[in-house]
């Protein structure tokens, strides 16, 4: 450490943990201001020259992206490279560039200005979306736009950095993260970005720690300032004291050791010490996550949120397009199993049509929407069926509250099957059907519903909000969203028992399944399948493999007699501290 670092006060900041790991080292502030574009009038005789510039900039941008795709394929495999192929497709969008050319001719304005306006329109729309995923994809569109503008201005981008550094930037596109990773990158820190951005997925795939959402960080840090950060909990310290630095170094060592143990668990089953086996699967939103999910040692995919295919689209994707996606997921996971959930739209998720509802969470959501649009539903059901030919897909219906909804959805599935059979298209005729238990009414009639299906998967994110009347996205009441509320625990017990009494397996794909504090309890309540966010999977496996089923059952019985959330939570914390002192709890 230099004198300069010792003389400055340390500053501790909190961001969003995005990719696990501890990073310690000097900062490199990566400035990525968008190119400055001014509006300029041109003469009619300069139009062709202006359009030539565009053709050449598109060719250069295309070459740059092709190199990035090639590099991504080598480093990460073809699945991750798809992110950049999508950017290449924007360059091939003839409708977009024809309209840009037309405008240059008609308005006699410089091409850079028109490019920024035209692509900027999409970017602004996507950025204004209520949906986090669409906002994240806006970065990709902006990245292509800036790449074209930079080439129009014949500027080059910095990509070589001497020495090991933590990259700090206002915003990093996935391509930046990838290109910079050719240097010795210790970590990524950005001001903007959520936990599902492509840059974050890449950082995880590359095993590089990352924190996002640290406002103003790029103006607070100067080149070569020493920083340390914790990608598990989002803490970052600028100019750490010798003592703080030592703490982070120790933590890095502990985590390396711990991760070493967890990696060793990868191929082992999620089985208790006394031989009780459960399924430990992953929740997936994007195809790009499949590599990471495999490396984490998942038994399969317990929830594929198919509605992510609708993001940024104004119309439902055609059967063929959907089929390709589902096939990629099924092949990527093969021979492991994938549960594809049919479009769960409405609520706080994107809507197919602009519908104004006073209470969208109590409105047109999930299966209700799809049953009201049987043709669109049939497209999706046929696409899923077609991808099921290798028999590793199940179908799951979200937001069920009535028995008749399940029956109707199954009827439509039969229609889809006979349409495919008529066309002699192969599919799995015995494809399993399950439903999500997210609405209290469905929990109450869980046994009746179970008789119609092969499995139940508990969606605690919605079930808790409906059971406790607490909007899952409302910060004002967020402390009332309690997974350890006795009503929740007793409800879970009821669903699991009712499902099992009808001989169907009962899983959970809500966030609670991935909370290490809840693992022993859920195991003891008899849950058969845990489907969790991929990064917590090894920890949950470790807990399951370190306890006896009998002791988990005993713990669950005890918890079921407790009267308050506080009592349950502190008891769980006590047990965890005693048994798993090395597992970090929130
Ligand atoms: C849930 O509600 O718990 C769930 C997994 O579905 P989503 O979070 O997609 O609503
Ligand atoms: Mg839900």
Fold and architecture overview:
With 586 residues, the protein is of the alpha/beta class. It folds into three domains: 3-32 and 158-241, Phosphohistidine domain (Glucose Oxidase, domain 1, 3-Layer(bba) Sandwich), CATH 3.50.30; 44-152, Enzyme I, Chain A, domain 2 (Orthogonal Bundle), CATH 1.10.274.10; 262-579, TIM Barrel, CATH 3.20.20.60. It is built from 23 helices and 16 strands. The protein has an eight-stranded mixed sheet. The protein has an eight-stranded parallel barrel with strand order 9-10-11-12-13-14-15-16, surrounded by five helices. β9, α11 and β10 (300-305) form a beta-alpha-beta unit. It is globular and about 80 Å long. The site of magnesium ion has 5 residues, from α18.
